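Sharing a chain and its predicted structure for anyone who wants a worked example. Both blocks are below, sequence first, tokens second.
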Amino acid sequence: MKLITILGTRPEITKLSPVLPLFDQEFEHKIIHTGQHYDHNMDGLFFEELNLRKPDYMLNVGSGSHAQMTAKMMVKLEEVFLNEKPNAIIAFADPNTPLAAALVAAKIHIPVIHMEAGCRSFNKKMPEEINRIICDHCADLLLAPDQVAHNNLLKEGIDEKKIKVVGSTALEAAVRNLKIAKQKSTIKEKFGIMGGRYALLTIHRAENTDNKIILKGLVEAMNKISVRIPIVFPMHPRFKKAQEREGLVLADTIITMDAVGYLDMLSLLDGAEFVITGSGGLQEEAAALNTPCLIIRNETEWTYLTDAGKNKLISNDKETIFEHINDLLNHPEELKHMRNVKLNLDLEVSKKVVLAIKNELI
């Protein structure tokens, strides 16, 4: 069986890291990198850190509007698919890369396997939500991370025979790679935060960087919070551009750095009192490492983590953010409770993915 995996962003690379070597072992397997993330620190570094082989195809799509990126990917992916003639393709999660892959494959009658299927934030203003829905409805095999995602798919009328609950490769990857991070990462020594108390921050979502009022409010809230607890802030290129554009100044109590690799991020996450983020991937990684996660969004696709009390939605409103975090700092027992919520961590998810593909498509 010939299988093609299409990826193009940091979350896809890291979350697929446990399963890509198994695909190489079990199938005739090709990897296509669309180049949706084109900065070395945003994707190339992750392949090196995780000892993943180089992709067979580099499409070098780069940046652009959603329409420009998706259209370029579709044209180039169609050419590769028609040449390679795979038995199925893997589309992962919700960036523009899986959207393009799923649309192209479905149009030329190549079976689509959608991993991380069924996740819903129920906010259709998010580009990722549109991508998830389209990918799921193009898919022939839907590999869901949890029962909530499974139920979401049933409510949308998808045939239950197509759905398999396999678990989350993101949780598996975080747990497996933390040991490597502890051995290899020197980020804490480099920035003098060894053994120190700090919060970790990431800001990258368009709804938080492209809206001037929200962006300014986030910076003001973080400056105030950093007076109480130092904040470590690896800055995404999108935030850096927005900060420069708006002339925003970060407090001296915020330790800034360029975007970091996956292992450095795991190391920072593992040592943090809590993480403040809008990232879907970090929500899962934080949960896997028992780091309380405060989500600067109004909704999340990872509802099973908020329902369990592992993560907490605090919105992207500056006053609400400050009130929530200030209250948690005043009541550390709440952070301890979040840290102690137990999850059923499955470290065999990648094997279940391979088994599901073999059982359903061979």
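Comments welcome. DSSP finds 18 helices and 13 strands in the chain.
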